[in-house]
Write a structure and sequence with these properties.
The protein has 354 residues and is an alpha/beta fold. The protein has helices at 2-17, 54-68, 83-93, 107-116, 142-156, 171-191, 216-228, 242-252, 264-267, 283-295, 327-342; strands at residues 39-43, 72-76, 98-102, 121-125, 135-140, 161-166, 196-198, 200-201, 206-207, 233-237, 256-261, 275-281, 304-306, 313-315. Helix 5 crosses helix 6 (171-191).
């Protein structure tokens, strides 16, 4: 009885976490002990599962489900875009009960596979455009959390110049950059300052992109260029390319980095002293909750949208920089968070999931 009760509590919590966009399914029995096997599968984008970013976060959610929900798992790493379709086909041959594809770049391959196999279930991270009954989008309103990070960056900079850049110009990248720019603008409006943002113009939707999520040298060169122009806070939205930013910031001896997707302090601990904060997407928890829902027989194509209100996005603690962030700035950021959650403050991006 204790085992049944504990598992029911876990599944109820998972359902509530997904309730931001759909009513929580009613759990009347314990589906994890019904003897039915469940195979959860995942395909990375070209960044791979060791990217210290969104691929790794998704994989961690899959592994958590393997342990806590007692499922079996399979994963496939994509070396480049040409692997997406073949990896999906391979997973179809494995008879996966639920297949996750990690990243907007897998949209086309996911849609094709899901259309061809309407009785198989899929979930795609960072895309909401697929409208099929067997595909669940997991997306995140990261503009809200990036707004807080932009405000922090503007408050922290000593040069009056901060910067951001992306790997590729896709919605799941530019949404961070939009929120960051707006957060800097809010700090300027509140304090009569003129902190400048290099790398992104929200109004024109033009800015700096390395063209991929793999080449760390491009990340280092882009960051060095920003530092040479005076930027001392850099937010790379580029997966593994961001490791080049870390290297360039450390070499400069004066710049700091705002990481994205995961908490860089924990994900890249060897460079923890360089992270002012991180703009986090709780991808792992969304993956876990989606598996719990599907294993209980309640798979739904209703999108999960992570927000500040449901804990799907946030900024990380200041960690080693905590003493360097004035209390009034911390208090202001907490007020901005509360205002976004209440709806008193609306952060808008053309890339917001709708």
């Amino acid at each position: 009885m204790k085992k049944l009760a504990a598992t029911a509590v876990l599944l109820t919590a998972a359902a509530l976490a997904l309730a931001g966009c759909a009513p929580a399914p009613e759990v009347t029995d314990d589906p994890t002990d019904n003897g039915a096997p469940f195979l959860g599968c995942m395909i990375s984008d070209a960044g791979g599962f060791n990217d210290n970013s969104f691929n790794q976060s998704g994989w961690e959610g899959l592994k958590k489900a393997e342990t806590e929900l007692r499922i079996t798992t399979k994963e496939a790493t994509s070396k480049d875009g040409s692997d997406y379709a073949s990896n999906l086909e391979a997973m179809q041959d494995e008879n996966c009960d639920l297949t996750f594809t990690v990243g907007f770049l897998l949209k086309e391959a996911t849609e094709a596979q899901a259309t061809a196999f309407p009785n198989s279930n899929f979930a795609i991270i960072d895309d909401i455009q697929i409208k099929l009954d067997n595909v669940k989008p997991l997306v995140f309103k990261t503009s809200d959390a990036a707004y807080l990070a932009g405000y922090l960056a503007a408050a922290y900079t000593e040069t009056g110049i901060v910067a951001t850049f992306g790997g590729m110009q896709i919605p799941s990248v530019t949404i961070f950059m939009d929120g960051f720019v707006d957060g800097v603008a809010r700090y300027n409006a509140d304090n009569g300052t003129d902190v400048k943002v290099l790398g992104w113009d929200k109004e024109t939707q033009n800015g700096s992109f390395t063209g991929d999520f793999d080449d760390q040298t491009k990340g280092a060169n882009t960051t060095k260029n920003f530092i040479d122009q005076g930027a001392d806070v850099i937010m790379p939205v580029a997966g593994p390319v961001g490791h080049g930013s870390i290297a360039a910031a450390k070499d400069s001896g004066k710049a700091v980095v705002i990481w994205v997707d995961s908490d860089g302090y924990n994900a890249v601990p060897e460079n923890k002293d360089i992270f002012l904060t991180s703009v986090m997407k709780q991808i792992g928890q969304a993956v876990f909750d989606t598996i719990a829902e599907a294993k209980a027989g309640n798979f739904s194509a209703t999108p999960y949208i992570g927000t500040l209100a449901n804990g799907g996005v946030d900024i990380a603690p200041y960690h080693d920089f905590d003493a360097k962030v004035p209390q009034e700035v911390k208090d202001k950021i907490e007020q901005l968070r509360a205002d976004i959650i209440s709806g008193a403050l609306v952060v808008d991006s053309p890339a917001d999931p709708k």
